[in-house]
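FAQ: What does the model actually see?

It sees only this:
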Amino acid sequence: MKIKFCGGARTVTGSSYLITLDSGYKILLDCGLYQGHAKELENFNREWPFDPKDIDCLILSHAHIDHAGRIPKLVKDGFRGRIISTHATAGLSSIMLMDSAKIQKSDAKYKSKKGLATHLPLYLPKHVPKALQKFIGIGYDQWFKIKSGVKVLLRDAGHILGSANVTLRIKEKGKPVVMIGFTGDIGRPGRPILRDPVIMPQVDYLICESTYGNREHASTPNETSKFLNTILKTCVDNKGKLLIPAFSVGRTQEILYMLDQLESSGQLPRIPVFVDSPLAINATKIFSAHPECFDKEMSNYLLTDDNPFGFNDLYYINKRERSMKLNDAKGPCIIIGASGMINAGRIKHHVYHHGRYANNTILLVGYCSPGTPGGKLRRGKRRLSLFGEIVPIKAQVVTMDSFSAHADRVEMAGFLRNQKNLKNLFLVHGEYDTQQEFKEYLGKFGLNRVEIPTLRQEFKIR
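And it is asked to produce this:
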């Protein structure tokens, strides 16, 4: 039996891990899109380290594009198997993948119009429905038979709606049972809306994320105060605009829920709030359709407020024409838009137009890959290349990692506390320097058999 690391190795995007059983049966864990500009990975999204026709089954941990974004290409290139996920992940994937296809098509058209070097999109909107037909939604906490001798268990990862960690129980003829785990992206305990991450069964081999393996987030109680202070300073004191690049799934809903609570308590000033993302609008509808994923606090909140994602002065912007008018809007406001890394979507236009002015603020509320505009702002860069132009960023830049849907090193170590029989732990979905620090940190808890795989590296595990 072998594990091959086909993505998400020493980087935080493009997650994909191939398990090949002794019988030759192949299970792919995630099929993510690489989102970044590292030269050594410039062909990652177009090339496969395997033949898609040979993959028998795909298990998807959650619907974020860095975990699901190449699924239509996989199907287009010959994958014929089933895609197993939770019901909510299947629902979110339908809008996430269609949005990804539209963005690729639009980007290709724009670059062609500008005479910039380009190539064809990985897939088009017409390829998405065929991929969606292969999804099989299953519930949490129940063993599902993939084939004779192979079962999968999905437990709530607490990361985004429908996210799951994956446990495989493999029993091949004449050989002992092998337990293989994949954490997916580990969520944070105590976060709003979703339930806390559910610890996995003990496994023999574990593929573990490490995004924030070298840091500890700000405590949850501090974030509402800092968020409100950022709003007041920008929109009340400076009469400016607060731009919030936020992933359409998860982060946007969390921000809206917090704004809803501030409005209900009378703390939110009367300023317009715009959700400028058709994907976020559709995702919010899917959130509302899956209350089974909500935590106790959210369920109780629904008893007094039946719409936790709607309040006075909140406006959802679908049409592009209305989005463009925001570029000329006068007066303070809050604009929430995708993408969270400012490398695509409508927020990129808003940063282009409004990032030039010192009375405005860009609030970064999640991880940004180093090569993206968001990543550059995090590192203190104040000149961004946007739409072929170098744009000086004079707006204030504020970061709030307490919003992160990824567990920090303390929370991840706590999630792993029951893993007493590990033969190997493989760190993925993290930058290499971070992974080295996390590996050392895990050693303090007796987790010493830790590997940091390179891209396409293969390990024999039995």
